[in-house]
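Predict structure. Chain length: 104.
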Amino acid sequence: MLHGVVREHLRTFLWELDRHDEQRGTPLFVRREFQRFVRCGVLAHGFARFRCTGCGADRLVAFSCKGRGFCPSCGGRRMTERAAHLIDHVLPRAPKGCRVGRRG
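Prediction complete.
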């Protein structure tokens, strides 16, 4: 739903931002973030094709925007990747039998 609303109203939204702040205009990074979000996950804007060597089935995966600020899909993916990195490589393992943080 968010994607559809942004896609439908992006031009008007950016125009209104520019109109209200004529001297500075909308920052380029804001424009780019929204424009990439609108293209995120849309096959027409690029994709990779994967084929199963066993059965020959194809799967198309649309490119993502890799946004950090606005895209909930890409932001969630980054958050999950960061959490996995912290658990696997940064935070120490709790000793076996440790019940810290457990309710019981």
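Summary: The helical segments are 2-20, 28-39, 72-90.
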